[in-house]
Amino acid sequence: MATPAEQVDASSLDVWTDVEAERVGTAATVVTFVRTAIAVVLAGVAAREDSLPLLVASLGVYWVGDMLDGAVARVLGCETRIGAALDILCDRFCAAAFYVGLMWLDPDLAPAVLVYLAEFMVVDCFLSLAFLAWPIRSPNYFYVVDRPLWLWNWSKPGKAVNSSLFAVLLLVTGWVAVGVAIASALLLLKCLSLARLMRLGLPIPAR
Questions:
Q1: Which among 50, 71, 133, 204 would be 20 to 30 A from 102, CA to CA?
Q2: What is the C-alpha separation between 66 and 89, in angstroms, rounded?
């Protein structure tokens, strides 16, 4: 029986990594580093100045920059596994800076924020980096390995729910109980995803 990877047609071959193209210095990684630096600095200044507008600006730079580096990588043909891994880690840095700043401005939001950070910084980070066990360029192409996991985590709706819904709800409403409920639901989804990934098994490279 063919594996999921073997069932992909020739039109999808651009999902596979090109070992010779792997490098840190690409236009996309430059965008990743720049947007991360700007977002983190804005979050730090926002906390120092007790400024919610600056903190929202930090979040905006993080989100827009995250879309931009991916677009640059695809348009310029410089998608690499190194770039994808750096993007995943920089996303966590940006998110941590924003949410720590949010707790600084409104400590009452801490329960919801801490549950979300456990989900995003730990479980989701492990899930997102798991793509490195297969020869694909990034988690965006995980559908060639397991489509349900991709739909839940790295499809456009999956990404939007994980990264946008929680932040927007807290900023607009400030409802801690609802925030805890949403963060807990996301954590449950990620734990279920992790259980499915473990059943799938992580390939171990040959010696």
A1: 71
A2: 11
Burial (0-12, 13-18, 19+ Cβ within 10 Å), 184: middle
How many domains, in total, are found in the chain?
Answer: 2
Model confidence, pTM: 0.89
pLDDT tens digits, the chain, 207 residues: what are they?
A: 334 444 444 344 589 988 888 889 899 999 999 999 999 999 999 999 999 999 999 999 999 999 999 999 999 988 999 999 999 999 999 999 999 999 999 999 999 999 999 999 999 999 999 999 999 999 999 999 999 999 999 999 999 888 888 999 899 988 999 999 999 999 999 999 999 999 999 988 777
Beta-ladder partners of 16: 136
Tokens read off for 69: 């580096």
| 93 and 146 both lie in a single domain | no
Residues 95 and 110 in one domain: no
Is 1 contained in some domain?
no
Residue 171 domain flag: yes
Long-range contacts of residues 22-25, Cβ cutoff 8 Å, at least 24 apart: 22/80, 22/81, 22/82, 23/80, 23/82, 24/82, 24/83, 24/86
65, burial (CB in 10 Å: exposed 0-12, middle 13-18, buried 19+):
buried
For residue 47, what are the domain limits? Answer: 23-105
